[in-house]
Design a protein that fits this description.
Elements (H helix, E strand, L loop, with lengths): L1 H36 L1 H9 L11 H7 L33 E2 L5 E2 L6 E4 L2 E4 L5 E9 L2 E8 L14 E5 L3 E5 L33 E9 L2 E2 L5 E3 L2 E6 L2 E8 L19 E7 L8 E9 L4
Antiparallel strand pairs: 1-15, 2-5, 3-4, 4-15, 5-14, 6-9, 6-15, 7-8, 7-14, 9-12, 10-11, 12-13
Helix pairs in contact: 1-2, 1-3
Amino acid sequence: MFQIGMLLASALPALLLSVAATAVADGTALTDALRQRDPAIAGLIDANPGMAAGWQEPFWRDALLDAPLIPGTRWRVHDLARPQPPVVAPRACQPSSGRRLGPQDWQGAQLPLWTFANGEMIPSGQSANRIETKASVADVEVSLEFMMPAPPAGVFQQRGNSGLFFQQRYEVQILDSHDNPTYPDGQMGALYGQAPPLANASRPPGQWQCLRVRFRAARFRKDGGLRSPPRATVTLNGVVLQRQQAFLGPTAFARIGAWEPHATRLPLVLQDHGDAGGRIRFRNIRVRQLGER
């Protein structure tokens, strides 16, 4: 065992260099392929030379080159050629209503990876994880405040990446989209992988921002068929990013998930992507079931 360990130790630096060189080569090849696909992508890359650092992993090739078309559009899932949402000035946050959630309202095996102090929730950023509410909801309004890490760390999807999931499977993206271009259907306020936000109203890192989502739950017939899709109205910093936008299926990476029947009332889920730039601070998370006064 000792000799094998010594051999591995001596070979490890060369192995790591080889893996790193392969990743850089793959990233360069992908960048070249994307440049050739569409002048809009080439222009986006040229204007943001650090962006390609976010797709060194091999799986980005399939995601950015070969993802399927989004139904009803001419765009692929995670299509970099899709126009970037216009940048607009943030506005004043609206007063929040609903019941404020505290540490006692969350559960999950990975809950110890989160810190609760001074009214804030902060993920560790050590690994990707999800926690969920103990209570289940259907039609609901969720409002929360968040602050992206400053100075920012990471680029593309590795910068302040989180997400708020409804019915455990329909995600409204949370991302540091201030001066951080990425595929439009993965920006702050997107219905991830499906519908880009109507605008980019993100504040700079280090400032508190307010997110409000009014969600109408998916409902299924007794035979398992979809009766009505889930819909979301999303407001960030007083700016509407989605207007009763329908989900096309459950959230998935580089594809549109297939409909599967599920309960109407399910927990809310908050995600920590586990990236270097992922230690987002949350506070004042409030939940109001629609129909309540």
